[in-house]
Amino acid sequence: MSAKAGRVRLAKQPDSLFHTCIRFVAKNLQLYKDIEYLELLPALVKNAIFLNVVRVHKGFHDEELPRLLLNSTLTRVNLSTSTITDGLLALLSEKCPHLRSLTLTEGNYRFTRAGLDAMIKQLGKLQHLYAKHCPVIDDEFVRLLTTSCPHLDTLDLESCKNVGDESADGLRDMPLVRLNVAHTGITDKFLKAIANERCGKTLEDLNVGHCPITSDGLAALPWDTIKYIGFEGCSIEDLDIVGFGKHLKYIYWTISN
After folding, report:
1. Fewer CB atoms < 10 Å away: N or C end of the chain?
2. Which strands form 101-103's sheet, in the order they lie side by side?
3. N- to C-terminal Cα distance for the chain?
């Protein structure tokens, strides 16, 4: 049998009974929410159901089902497509103390700033936060985030319009590897503030697209660690300021008029 034929045969194998059952339960989860056994399921099964609901069935839109499924073994939670309320954020902080990655992006944001603050104070092990287009996130929240989550290394705040230069006060001492602040209010002042601090020296992936950034701000960055940088829509006329070091692999840029 050829390698290609083997791959085709493998691809057509039916799903395991476990995954078939998970999909069935996830699809009909509303039927089980009043049955006490759902809460007694092993953590492995709960986690698989939770993931399937988000990926396939348009997320969670009440707090009762997440209350039954969230548990202390979860280290990654994706709430995209879900309706995210203060109550759901409170459940995360209560039931998932070991959370390391949280995705809020593309969720229906129905939470308040107070609810977001209360949650983030309890997630001291968080390493990755994705929260694009969130209107309640501002410079003050970024400062709270950096004091509450000292291990943060990935932060995606694209299109959080209330984030600006003052957020550098908290971020400068963070060991960030990936930072996306495209479509925010940061300027050259932000880049200069983090450039020679811990953050500037650890960054590998930086996106400042469609911000009022100029060549002056980019020139301040240390280019020893940066592998990926995006400054699409910024007032950059040439690439003379880019340090073409051995690590740089990708530039996302548009020529200004």
Report:
1. C
2. 76-78, 101-103, 128-130, 154-156, 178-180, 205-207, 228-230, 250-252
3. 58
Task: Give alpha helix (H) positions in 100-229.
Answer: 113-120, 139-148, 168-171, 188-195, 198-202, 215-219
Q: Which amino acid is at 60?
A: F
Helices (H), the chain: 3-11, 17-27, 37-40, 43-56, 64-69, 86-95, 113-120, 139-148, 168-171, 188-195, 198-202, 215-219
Q: Is 99 helix (H, G, I), strand (E, B) or coil?
A: coil
Give pLDDT tens digits for 12-67. 565 788 888 888 888 888 777 776 777 788 999 999 989 999 988 889 999 998 99
DSSP secondary structure of 119-135: HHTT-TT--EEE-TT-T
Strand partners, 106: none
